[in-house]
Amino acid sequence: MVHAVDLSGRTAVVTGAGRGLGLAYARALAAHGAAVVVNDVDAEAAEAAAKLVREAGGRALALAGPVGPSETADALVHAAVAEFGGIDVMVTNAGVLRDTVLWKMSDEDFDTVVNVHLRGTFTCVRAAAVAMRAAGRGGRVIVAGSPTGQRGNFGQTNYAAAKAGIVGMMRTWAMELARAEITVNALIPVAATAMTRTIPFFAPHVEALERDGVALPDELRKGEGFGTVEDVAGLVVYLASAESAGVTGQAIGIGGDRLALWSHPQEVAVEYADGGWSAEAIAAAWPATLGRAPETVGMPAPGEGQ
Ligand SMILES: NC(=O)c1ccc[n+]([C@@H]2O[C@H](COP(=O)([O-])OP(=O)(O)OC[C@H]3O[C@@H](n4cnc5c(N)ncnc54)[C@H](O)[C@@H]3O)[C@@H](O)[C@H]2O)c1
């Protein structure tokens, strides 16, 4: 029998929760009983999100501020402790895009994305880890990766760097925080939001969903793992709960009707040469050994399957 997941007595911080996936996470966490500190750089969106949660009977506090600097991270954890008595769950979701190909990407495009995603995840999780370790009651850290970070994607140098870095930090933190019974996992979500609605393959379906409530077709929900933001929220609630004790260090894909476990990078082929490998020896061996089945990069184009 499936029993209800109960988060009552727990407090969560969700960054970038004014809209999109973060808003869905905040609403779902609160609906399962957690008190939620709702952050967004957009103060109006943060206030409106906290109001929505409260109107649905949940407990929420809005705290606007830009994720990235440690001051915001510290303020978020402080608010959780001061207002709700502690922090049990940190969800680092805030994000921005500045897409363009490598040769056109400015320093500013690179720094903006890395600051919000990578540094923002670092500062928020560090602040949460300090408070969780001091309180000694364990905890849950849920960070946001992306298919782009796992595989690479055309036009997303900055975003790929940040998202791959986040999953790299997640693996390290899962090890460092295990003794304190703090689990650390990465979501690899796909959902219809401001970030994805303009992808030509998805756009007409998202429009029909929003305008006429037409459900997304199986081709998208199963084939592409593409659905609504609510489809992703169940995984966040699970990872925030007692039910997921022992699940740590995992990158978990979710979207539409799909739930998937991503592999971590590992060696897939190894060759040995007595005394080591010269350039000449590698050139001679490559085609018949490691070069026989090179790893692919990038995601399958929509419609081409997984
Ligand atoms: N939508 C997808 O399919 C998808 C896929 C992979 C990963 N993600 C990741 O999920 C997360 C949420 O994405 P989304 O699609 O809901 O995006 P969104 O643009 O709909 O929402 C992002 C929110 O973050 C806020 N934000 C931006 N910069 C911030 C900052 N410095 N501090 C605080 N808040 C800030 C924005 O104001 C916005 O409300 C992101 O980390 C994104 O990279 C989304």
From TrEMBL:
Presence of the UniProt keyword Oxidoreductase in the record: yes
Pfam (any one): adh_short
First and last residue of the signal peptide: none
SUPFAM superfamilies named among the record's database cross-references: NAD(P)-binding Rossmann-fold domains
UniProt keyword list: Oxidoreductase
Family designation: Belongs to the short-chain dehydrogenases/reductases (SDR) family.
Designated name of the protein: SDR family oxidoreductase
Lineage: Bacteria, Bacillati, Actinomycetota, Actinomycetes, Catenulisporales
GO molecular function, one term: oxidoreductase activity
InterPro entries recorded: KR_dom, NAD(P)-bd_dom_sf, Peroxisomal_Beta-Oxidation, Sc_DH/Rdtase_CS, SDR_fam
Stretches assigned to the Ketoreductase domain: 10-193
The UniProt record lists the keyword Oxidoreductase: yes
